[in-house]
Amino acid sequence: MPIKTGAEYIQSLKGRKMKVYLFGELVPEPVDHPMIRPSINAVAETYDLAASESELASVKSSISGLQVNRFLHIAESAEDLVNQNKMQRKLGQLTGTCFQRCVGMDALNSLYSVTYEIDEKHKTGYHKRLVEFIKMIQTENFVIGGAMTDPKGDRSKAPHEQEDPDVFLRVVEKNDKGIVVRGAKAHQTGCINSHWIIFMPTMRLQENDVDYAVVGAVPADAPGITYIYGRQSCDTRSMEGGDLDAGNSKFAGQEAMIIFDNVFVPWEYVFMNGEYEFASMLVERFTCYHRRSYVCKTGLGDVLIGASAAISDYNGIPNVSHIRDKLVEMTHLNETIYAAGIASSYQAHRTKSGNWLNDDMLANVCKHNVTRFPYEIGRLAQDIAGGLMVTLPSEKDLRNPETGPILRKYLRGRKGVDVEDRMRILRLIENMTLGRNAVGYLTESMHGAGSPQAQRIQIARQMQLEYKKQLAKNLANVKDDTPSSPEMSDYFQRVFKTSSKN
Ligand SMILES: Cc1cc2nc3c(=O)[nH]c(=O)nc-3n(C[C@H](O)[C@H](O)[C@H](O)COP(=O)(O)OP(=O)(O)OC[C@H]3O[C@@H](n4cnc5c(N)ncnc54)[C@H](O)[C@@H]3O)c2cc1C
Q: Of 392, 331, 365, whose CA–CA distance to 449 is shortest?
């Protein structure tokens, strides 16, 4: 039976043979761990949204013929990509955290076109295998984790040059049944909450790196896989009892390191094996999808703007001009992120395989804005919140018969506002700018889908200075030796097209 609701999803994770370490100990059942559970709740929302708002979060797939969760859908039009963005913003609003499914969605979509093009050149059968895999996960309605980032060791060296060859995941054995891989993937969002993990190379590869050019899918509880849970700031607040100090007690993100210790992958789940020249195409297409997926952070931005407006109201200054102006600034920054992301989706084009890929330049602009604007939005939220956000006593002090009344007397804001409500909003702002969900809102915004320099490199590649120089020279009536009209890049051709459909 396919998983339908959030509750069924949570049930589906129980009883698996996962080897998960947290605080130096094996976790008997991750689903029941109070520190892990909020991250599972966030993924569960992706199921409940598909059940309640089916147009936004589910769609008919031509691959399986089924109505599927949008996170498992291969984009069949620019509109599909636009709808992904709308769903991502909505889920950010509902959870205030990373709901962990975009990496899998973007991995499936990039692999769909890349496997097609590998097959075209090498006469391999990866695309058909991938399509069968997609049919299976759409039918079962599974969560897919996308594992790209290797630990990478010495950043100045290629995989084959590393002192320890395992710091990039690689094939260590092949036989007639499949391959065996060894290595690790770092910072893996939602991996323990996934049913299957797709592993992929993390960077452009050369001939010497042929063993590292590998893509495959494994069940999250496959033999040989170990997870070491990543700590988040203030995460143990989930284990203290009460629900106030956590700030957002229901939802959180999840990152862990995955260790692949000689993990066997049958051929039917291998989607690249040695075609090293396609690693850069895969990384570029994946990051193209994924950098625009960061519009999810505008949903979190909506929550933080709302929290800032609420605390200014509780403090009695909702209509003061500089507060209004700061809320306008936060909104402007937030919508700037959204604008680039959704424009990138609207400017999509069809790949050879038939699926749709959003515009790379605008995706990189979206992600580059995400590396900066949430920090400024967070700064303004902290400005509006006041210092109490970081000096507030604990929930236990509020509940204590001696200190509780004192806190209720001295922590009041404007008349009619409950002290506990004021504390709750302050804790939420702390959670999103310094606490658990700052991981998703700030540092993931910085490094996820590549650190800022990675976007600058992509923007530089496509900025077409020669074309722009010529525009200037034409108008200034400059005659020099440069060709009179350098060709427009794909990006500019798309900018000037009236329709996004090819
Ligand atoms: C919260 C979070 C969630 C994430 N989720 C996922 C996930 O689900 N799946 C996944 O695959 N990845 C995930 N990532 C990983 C993310 O893609 C990486 O963090 C990112 O690619 C940067 O890699 P790094 O962290 O190893 O930093 P580094 O590569 O060490 O970068 C640190 C700095 O060094 C610079 N640098 C690095 N190498 C070079 C070089 N050779 N030359 C010049 N400068 C260099 C970078 O530009 C950057 O400024 C996640 C990251 C975070 C923080």
A: 365
CB 409 near ligand 1, within 6 Å: no
* Alpha helical stretches, state H, 294-394: 296-314, 321-346, 360-370, 373-385, 388-391
* Distance (Å, whole) CA 208 – CA 343: 39
Is the per-residue pLDDT at 56 higher than 90?
A: yes
Can you tell me whether residue 296 is helix, strand or coil?
Answer: helix
Q: How far apart are alpha carbons 431 and 303 in whole angstroms?
A: 12
Task: Quote the pLDDT of residue 144.
Answer: 98
Ligand 1 neighbour 149 (Cβ under 6 A): yes
Beta bridge partners of 361: none
Centre of ligand 1 to C-alpha 451, Å, is 6
Query: Under a CB-based contact definition with an 8 Å cutoff, are residues 311 and 388 in contact?
Result: no
Q: What is the mean pLDDT of the chain?
A: 96
**Class of residue 352 by CB neighbours under 10 A (exposed 0-12, middle 13-18, buried 19+):** exposed
Cα–chain center distance at 352: 26
430, 436, 438, 440: CA torsion to nearest 10: -150
Q: H-type helices in 29-150, by residue range? A: 37-52, 54-57, 78-95, 102-122, 126-140
* H or E element in which residue 184 lies: strand 178-189
The pLDDT of residue 480: 81
Residues assigned a catalytic role: 98, 102, 189, 255, 290, 294, 296, 444
pLDDT at 1: 85
CA of 454 to the centre of ligand 1 (A): 9
- Walk me through the domains of the chain, giving residue ranges and CATH numbers: 6-283 (2.40.110.10), 293-459 (1.20.140.10), 464-496 (no CATH)
Q: Give the rounded distance of the alpha carbon of 423 from its chain centre.
A: 30
pTM for this prediction? 0.96
Among 445, 446, 458, which Cα is nearest to 299's?
445
pLDDT tens-place string over residues 136-187: 999 999 999 999 999 999 999 999 999 999 999 999 999 999 999 999 999 9
Q: What is the pLDDT of residues 181-204, one digit of tens each?
A: 999 999 999 999 999 999 999 999
Cα 389 versus chain centre, distance: 27
pLDDT for the residue 500: 44
Please list, residue by residue across 308-345, b when 16 or more beta carbons sit within 10 angstroms of its beta carbon and e when fewer do: bbbbbbbbeeeeeeebeebbeebeebbebbbbbbbbbb
pLDDT at residue 373 tops 80: yes
Q: Are 365 and 340 in contact (CB under 8 A)?
A: yes
Distance 155 CA to ligand 1 centre (A): 10
Q: Best of 451, 456, 458 to mutate for ligand 1, by most ligand atoms within 8 A of CB?
A: 451
- Which residue in 185, 108, 188, 95 sits closest to 142, CA to CA? 108
